[in-house]
Amino acid sequence: MSDNTDQKEWLVIVNPNAGNGKGKKDWEKISILLKNKALPFTVKFTEKKGHAIHYTIEGIASGYRKIITVGGDGTLNEVVNGVFLSKNCSPTDISIALIPVGTGNDWGRMFGIPLDYEKAISIICENKLMLHDVGLVSFYDGSEKKERYFINIAGLGFESVVVKRTNYQKDKGHGGKLIYFYNLLISLISYKNTKAEIIIDGEKISADVFSLNVGNGRYCGGGMRQTPRALPDDGLLDVTIINGMGKFEIIRNLKILYDGTILQHPKIDGYKCKNIKVSSEYVMFTEADGESLGQTPAEFSIIPEGISIVYGTKIIP
User: Fold this and answer.
1) Which residues contact 22 (CB under 8 A, 6 or more apart)?
2) According to the model, what pLDDT value does residue 305 have?
């Protein structure tokens, strides 16, 4: 611990571009609320992708052990990766809190963290902590094997194509609540299923994959419930595979992506596991917490009780 950092002080990492510029526009309001609650903090503003990872590693090395992310699921993902890449302490020594200003805010939805800034900050003040499982996905970027940690949901296939298209538009300054749903419909026109071999805790299956989601959390894509039974602290990954389903069948069943009944469909399989490996006939793209990554072959694993988070309400199993 360095002498110049009090462990009571929060490091606040702000993504000014989150929520189509809300991070920048609303920061003054958020900072006043933090000061009104007498929460001591130092603030860092990200300027590009990967910046929140850098600031997290730098902050932990300087002695910070409590981090508030002001942004969306992507900013939170970068902070989690920074925590695990830091060599200064155990990840469980770090507490992460969220003030959501992003487009999807799917992780915060699961823990009752509201979009109202004052209420979100009140939850931080209550400081209710739990140990949250963390996922790890390995994938390929060209011929190079890489890894990425995730706290909410990762995926392969159609989901990743939609994420890639959405992120491209966000980078161009186009955002909003309906962007993901719009891209979902547009991507359906050209998307084709991919034959894949999947090994789930050592058991091999073959599938004609439309999409495959791996979750600690229940929500993705601005409210879709692709892994509706996931628990963030059971030491298991929830896996949902949409298998052999055509685009017109998907369109007819869009509502089940949102209403929590997805696993009742006969062409959709659900599993709980600790490890899943996927190899595919043709390249399938990967994403984690809404961040576009690389491609198959990919492997997903779980780190039980990997990180400490501040929550509002807990999911009852």
Assistant:
1) 101
2) 97
Sequence ranges of the chain with CATH classification 2.60.200.40: 135-304
The pTM for the full model equals 0.91
| CB proximity list for 163: less than 8 A, separation 6 or greater | 155, 221, 287, 290, 291, 292
Distance from C-alpha of 104 to C-alpha of 93, rounded to nearest angstrom: 28
Contact between 74 and 289 under an 8 Å Cβ cutoff? The reply is yes
Residues of the chain with pLDDT under 50: 1-4
- CA torsion through residues 84, 89, 93, 98, sign: negative
Q: How far is CA 195 from CA 206, 242, 296, in A?
A: 7, 12, 12
Closest CA to 155 of 139, 179, 167, 171: 139
CATH number of 135-304: 2.60.200.40
The amino acid at residue 229 is R
Q: What pLDDT is stored for residue 130 in this prediction?
A: 96
The reported pLDDT for the residue numbered 159 is 76
Range list for CATH 3.40.50.10330 in the chain:
10-127
Q: Which overall architecture, per CATH, does domain 10-127 show?
A: 3-Layer(aba) Sandwich (3.40)
Strand extents, DSSP E, the chain: 10-14, 41-45, 66-71, 95-100, 129-141, 144-150, 153-157, 194-200, 203-215, 237-243, 268-273, 275-280, 285-288, 291-310
- In the chain the first and final C-alpha atoms are separated, in Å, by 38
CA angle at 177 for the pair 263 and 193, rounded to the nearest 5°: 40
- Element holding 159 (H helix, E strand): helix 158-171
Sign of the C-alpha dihedral, residues 192, 269, 291, 103?
Answer: positive
- Per-residue confidence (pLDDT) for residue 177, from 0 to 100: 59
